[in-house]
Design goal:
about 40% helix; homotetramer; alpha/beta; 13 strands; 14 helices; four-stranded antiparallel β-sheet
Amino acid sequence: MISFESDYTTGAHPKILQRFVETNMEVLSGYGNDAYCQSAREKIRNACQCPEAEVFFLTGGTQTNAVVISSVLQKYEGVVAAQTGHVSVHEAGAIENTGHKVLEIPQSEGKIDAAFLEQYIEAFYQDENYEHMVFPGMVYISYPTEYGTLYTKTELTKIYEVCKKYHIPLFIDGARLGYGLMSKNGDMTLADIARLCDVFYIGGTKVGALCGEAVVFTKNNTPKHFMTLVKRQGAMLAKGRLIGVQFDTLFTDNLYFDISRHAIEMAERLKEIIKEKGCRIYLESPTNQQFIVLENGKMEALKKKVRFGFWEKFDEGHTIVRFATSWSTSEEELDYLREIL
Amino acid sequence: MISFESDYTTGAHPKILQRFVETNMEVLSGYGNDAYCQSAREKIRNACQCPEAEVFFLTGGTQTNAVVISSVLQKYEGVVAAQTGHVSVHEAGAIENTGHKVLEIPQSEGKIDAAFLEQYIEAFYQDENYEHMVFPGMVYISYPTEYGTLYTKTELTKIYEVCKKYHIPLFIDGARLGYGLMSKNGDMTLADIARLCDVFYIGGTKVGALCGEAVVFTKNNTPKHFMTLVKRQGAMLAKGRLIGVQFDTLFTDNLYFDISRHAIEMAERLKEIIKEKGCRIYLESPTNQQFIVLENGKMEALKKKVRFGFWEKFDEGHTIVRFATSWSTSEEELDYLREIL
Amino acid sequence: MISFESDYTTGAHPKILQRFVETNMEVLSGYGNDAYCQSAREKIRNACQCPEAEVFFLTGGTQTNAVVISSVLQKYEGVVAAQTGHVSVHEAGAIENTGHKVLEIPQSEGKIDAAFLEQYIEAFYQDENYEHMVFPGMVYISYPTEYGTLYTKTELTKIYEVCKKYHIPLFIDGARLGYGLMSKNGDMTLADIARLCDVFYIGGTKVGALCGEAVVFTKNNTPKHFMTLVKRQGAMLAKGRLIGVQFDTLFTDNLYFDISRHAIEMAERLKEIIKEKGCRIYLESPTNQQFIVLENGKMEALKKKVRFGFWEKFDEGHTIVRFATSWSTSEEELDYLREIL
Amino acid sequence: MISFESDYTTGAHPKILQRFVETNMEVLSGYGNDAYCQSAREKIRNACQCPEAEVFFLTGGTQTNAVVISSVLQKYEGVVAAQTGHVSVHEAGAIENTGHKVLEIPQSEGKIDAAFLEQYIEAFYQDENYEHMVFPGMVYISYPTEYGTLYTKTELTKIYEVCKKYHIPLFIDGARLGYGLMSKNGDMTLADIARLCDVFYIGGTKVGALCGEAVVFTKNNTPKHFMTLVKRQGAMLAKGRLIGVQFDTLFTDNLYFDISRHAIEMAERLKEIIKEKGCRIYLESPTNQQFIVLENGKMEALKKKVRFGFWEKFDEGHTIVRFATSWSTSEEELDYLREIL
């Protein structure tokens, strides 16, 4: 059985495992102070063209969102996010668990709109009772979004301008960042991302690592005593090398980008196959997640031969499913899929 | 330079890395539902002689303490712990971050006393204002303790009897559990631990894994929707295999116990060397952490050749330092230490 | 200058102050255990025709919502509420401060719909990833709503049936409960309210008291150690008599209902005056809050002679304003308003 | 039956009730923006000889402690307090409920020691693992303490010097502040208190009000958006006049001080009676709370005629009880007590 269920069903890129083996006996400091964490930080700063960037390693996406958001927000603030944002829906209330509200705003294909955002913030401050309300203290977007879509550089620039106008930091959830950067339809580099926000993270778990996300504060704006805040949330690893080695490897010889490009190429071929087979694309996603409308009978038949994700009911006879590619997706798998679709 | 700084300065036991490599391309479900997590759970249940045990995998010790304690406690309850307990002192307020008080009680060499505990709980319920106070809702102990010491089976049995009498669950922090079980002075098996508490965890990070702790609820008492509580705290891994493979390996062919026994043997030889060299043992620890009183001049000289941990000032001229052994401690390192001490 | 700004701009009904004076020198127990709290509880139980009701006194509305909701919810649960609900918008994140998400759903004139609610809960449990989401653990509605509107008995019955079907407690915020019960358009008694939910509160602050809300658990369902949870949130008064005496007075000789009826009669006359003067009613409210669309020039002129609340912009030339009546609204004030409108 | 059970068993000083009646029909703004709150603030600033003081009104002591402490602390900080401090023991975990640890330190008769405090803070920063620990972010003391004892001006000055040296704000819980200021043994004025800390509160509930505490930030240091933080904790009153009128009355014509002096005079006479009757004073308290050791038989007999508080067991045959005086304690009650003791 082949699988397009998600981008986290196979292990790590082999080069990562190889580096684990090679470095295993080295005596290293704990808690992220080791040489591999340092080296990975330096490589990420370079890749971001942001020498002043401060880089921290955390383990998973929900954890990273909760740690970053709660560390940046003042107690009277909440985080503005799309109603479909990962922090709004799929993190079991991890943000609220830190005492902060997710201020949900409308979206289109997973994206929020700069003009609406400005209007929302303006309305807040014009409300005579704004002191009785949760202050917008951060804006959260994901790139790519939960629907695999991408903000253009123009769109992101406008959102960031609104944020700067109101002194509200912008945070980009990059759980699948590589796929956005390598998309044929994307028009941004890692340096653009670093420049156009206050903090973002480079997702490892879903882009070839076993685990790990690299948080990047780009404006000399790391919250005070951030490591203590990380520890307080139970997010600090004793063997910090676990993530340091992985990111050091991912940012050596462009591995992170190569992995991402491969998945995008596989996704493009997947899209061709889907269209060739007359299946309906639910949403034109330019990244590694493809949302397809399948007739229910066909879906049931397919389920016996390939694993994929269920998104939601489309209508009585059809279902929206998700196919995702990853570092390990092979041409053979796509050939087989073409056969059985 | 050799290192006795801690038990987490080298990577994972080689068998673990080997299994990562062997299983890397297998397509596995996420979030801890994969075959390796299932297999590891089964092996742990067997090792605990507790078929009804429910096993969950988390990433690190502080995270595990915060998740378990906050999941078990009612909102009006706190957790009773030694003043020197890891949750009391060295977790940056991770328990309080979940809204719960650590009710600190006196200790001796890191251990709490059953009679005092009973007296403490009795006094609480006899206080006419107990409704204005934090209810004792869980008892936390560590085995081995933060000082490397061990409760005897008799001592643990008495503590657990007090807990059962007052219907207060007992939680054992086993960050270094293996070293306690393999200590020459320990008189408990893993099955004893499982029997004499309500929930405990088997530490991986400090016993040969790259990361990971296995939480074991032994009395059909897993908190409802525990996985959602784990997710809410940002503690769920997408690639659950990361920990599943590690614990599956650790509990195959007694690896966990062999690793622990090796570290204990190295610690026993270390202790001999220390005594032979006329250094003072601060505390008679039967596990892999040894606390030694060094004359400050000697300490400074030693620091150039070997890494170790600083504990606290002993007096003006002396310092208490910690030497720890691990799976990777070698006889050569000990020979070299004997030379330079 | 007269005022229709809100229902909390004058002090308490004079009978309440009189009772403060009369009972002032009596030696009473603290923390809500005094004879007046007991008597008030008994009178409320009778008024609710619910002998098993358990009654607690808190100080204000936001506090009551936060204490009740956080005491009832499990840690993995959130509270479902209208997007316009007081807990959603105007409590500065007090619910999230307790670690729980407000699960906002669509509304119409402040009311949620039973059919939508059922669909929402169904969709939650049908989502294959529901364990990664916040469980619907309580439903919150307000009666009257934030727009002064009322659920009919049929509507409330349907909502409660959905709640019971899914074992989700229903909580009614009755900050202005009296005005709903005495509305000409309302079709429910206090006994109906008590029967058709699991917990509700009878608002005092906005219905003639200086402060105070009476929480009523109607189904033998008070959360365990509720008083400790109240204390933990800083909501317990040493001189519990402060609220006991007020509610004892409000529920003697129907004062609570008389106050409410008076405000409703004044609101009905206010509505007539508004219509008579050709002003546009924004929303047909059957309770003590009236929402009116005023031409901006007229609004500015009026502001010099009468105080009222600003709700939101209607269009470029008009604003929605709120006029509220209360126990102290007099016919003279209405006569004067007719003159100047 | 007479009562010395506590200082909150009778209502408010009659002048307060009189002012409620006189001001009842005035139309006033809500949420603490009314003329009485403003006037009370001004009078308190004058009484403190601190024109820059910022004054806020809250309802009760535990609420005030939780709101002030959580508003001042950064997320990585905790509050240092005596092990016997009200926040440590008798607030049901209200501080931990805000996510912050109470860092308990030793005390003597309820007081902490400046030298120990300095040593404690020094030790924190010298610990190589201090980033894994809760930072001392505030120091909390009570004046008078929970045992009725008082810091001298010299002692308080030393504590405040330590605080300033380490940039840690000092917070004084003045739930019974008046009794400390009017004590024959006290050597501080309200202006001294204001000068020698960063924030304190003037207790109303236990000094003649029905409820209410006045928080005073004395160093231009009110936390940003404090009112929103107050609201978020459910501590904001719609009818702010409830507390404004009370403090305006208490700080008119020295009423607050007269009430306190009266209670102190009654306490002094009480002490004489106790000594005259050969009872043992447990602790030499210079304020309105007296701790007495009673033989158990005598205590049981006395309980039938007078109410008092139970503190703790002294030995098998004796109990420590608490007698408290207040604004309403009369000479007749003392005469009667002398008779029956």
